[in-house]
Design a protein that fits this description.
With about 300 residues, the chain is an alpha/beta fold. It has helices at about 40-50, 110-115, 155-160, 165-175, 190-205, 215-225, 235-240, 255-265, 290-295; strands spanning about 5, 15, 20, 30-35, 55-60, 65-70, 80-85, 120, 125-130, 140, 145-150, 185, 205-210, 230, 245-250, 265-275. It is elongated and about 60 Å long.
Length: about 300
Amino acid sequence: MRAAVLLNTGDEKLEIVDDLEVLPPGPGEVTVKIEATGVCHSDLHAMNGSLPQPAPFVPGHEGAGIITEVGDGVTGLAVGDHVIVAWSPPCGKCNNCVERKSPHLCVMIQFAIAGTPKFTRNGEPVFGMAGTGTFAEYLTLPQEAAIKIDDDIPFEIASLIGCGVSTGVGAAINTAKVKPGSSVVVFGCGGVGISAIQGAHVAGAAIIVAVDLVDEKLETAKTFGATHACKPDDLAALQAELTGDGFDYSFEAIGLPVTMRAAFDAVRRGGTACIIGVGAMDKEVSFNGFELFFSEK
């Protein structure tokens, strides 16, 4: 089958191959024909080594498709079902899933599949991004990682639910718990950032400021619910005009220390800064002990 493969960590380009073979489904697994895939900045993080990922590997972790084969013991799924690929599926059994009621923190399946080859090429193992690998025509997954959806949902829409949309909307509604009438600022207006804007809008925020360097992204953000949009250099003046002392909530959807710090600084005393962006392991963000105590953010 055809797929895009990163041969070595640090390579800037993918190789399009037609000789990749997907591993057959084992017990509790299904094989999915990928009909659509999203492109996430985290794929680039894995390619350049910012995220740990064995190579060679097939990038892509936002996907949707049709089940073509099921392994022994699979329940609730059948050949022909339309599904979304979940790169971080909950196991349903660990403390996070059961006792803490926080299945999004479960890593039992995620860590197990991340280091397991998903494909072979010329008899050699090939891994998949975060244990998935949606830049391929077929993909074998644990049944927990294939989320059944209605057949009339377009695949190109469904694929984005696998990461970008659920990450951004979930950050606003589930993690930060944005309240109606509140003020929000979002740093970064890519797929995750505009999803956080959409989540804040759904939650009833009265002020939603989008911050980005690209004019086109700022205009797009307004169609997802942003009430205001500006470049980073213009934020301080707009913040003073709209809030006086800072926003109730901020969301960082870039992954850089400078924007993480800016998100912390942009919220008022007692406000909430939610960091969504994937930062590199060798980059650090600094806070002094007094501001952490005094600002109660």
